């Protein structure tokens, strides 16, 4: 690499894309097209490890307050003294040592409760010494320590931890205990997850920040629930596909340890809920309006408008347009898709029945359903109108739209 060295330092890349020099550069250092020992983030992760720290069983000084034992005892983590040796890689097997770098011990302060620890990271630190040879320094690299997360483990089942109460409801209507397979649910409690985390891709993970939700159904099967979001007070999850109808139990785990259990939920084929923009199951729906004109043009708008404050969303007046226009209210909900056809889906506007042209999976997001409803023209000028779905005889929450 001497031909491209700058400032007297060996460059942190392989300096060649020749096939003889690729292994182990490409596999070890996450290189780009095997030409650089540098990731797209500019950071090379050389090693990760799981660390077990012995602690006492969690205990509580008051109901629901786990303030002793467990991960409460874990205040910090020390990396010890670390070193890195840099070699010149030769195709003939002569891997000559260029230099060894030594880094100072890093002590990472941790934020933990009884059942887990939040992520934490140190600053980047420069070397404190060099060896083989000790001087002059030829290599420069920095080191940092990151703790991704921690979770209390009770592998030998020796801790008698009584679970917190977990209450599960529809994430759309905020009502329960009726939930449907493939529907989105919210679980509420105290001291649930050690941190706030959310899924960033599909398929959804079944573990976030060390937290897992399990559903045990009436057929005796237990499944892990896909997770959208976890926090200390709320977890959003999907009722697993295939969950049998009837009574079911929800359990929350951190690692292998059960932390919270819920009261019984009632699993039914459908349990319709409509998402609302204020996220409280009432008022303005989180819906869109589409107006189709005879000339083929389509205008799309929201069925709500919001102020800067949380909970300030109200219905936005819907314009039904000219006499030849067709206007659709498109609701988003959950617990709807397993209906037995449109004949089982009823829509009411202020109690009057209307028809839906589609009621099923939204198709893009896990657990999200969609209902397309032509707005009857006789509702022009009606103002505030209450809208409700009844799917297979099961009513949804009531939302409100405004029609000019």
What can you see in these coordinates?
With about 400 residues, the protein is mainly beta. It has one helix and 36 strands. The strands form nine sheets. Strands 13, 14, 15, 16, 17, 18, 19, 20, 21, 22 and 23 form an eleven-stranded mixed sheet that branches. Strands 24, 25, 26, 29, 32 and 33 form a six-stranded antiparallel sheet that branches. The relative contact order is 0.10. Mean pLDDT is about 85; it is low at about 1-30 and about 35-40.
Core attributes:
elongated; 404 residues; disordered N terminus; 11-stranded mixed sheet; 6-stranded antiparallel sheet; mainly beta; 1 helix
What is the general shape? elongated
| Main beta-sheet strand count, sense and barrel state | 11 strands, mixed
Mean pLDDT: 83
Specify the number of helices.
Answer: 1
Itemize the secondary structure elements and their pairings:
Layout: H1 25-28, E1 59-62, E2 65-68, E3 76-78, E4 82-88, E5 96-103, E6 107-109, E7 112-113, E8 116-117, E9 120-121, E10 129-131, E11 146-147, E12 150-151, E13 164-170, E14 178-179, E15 184-188, E16 197-198, E17 211-216, E18 222-224, E19 227-230, E20 234-238, E21 246-254, E22 257-262, E23 265-267, E24 273-274, E25 288-292, E26 298-302, E27 304-305, E28 314-315, E29 326-334, E30 345-349, E31 352-354, E32 358-361, E33 369-374, E34 383-391, E35 394-395, E36 399-403
Short description:
By secondary structure, the protein is mainly β. The chain has one helix and 36 strands. The chain is elongated and about 85 Å long.
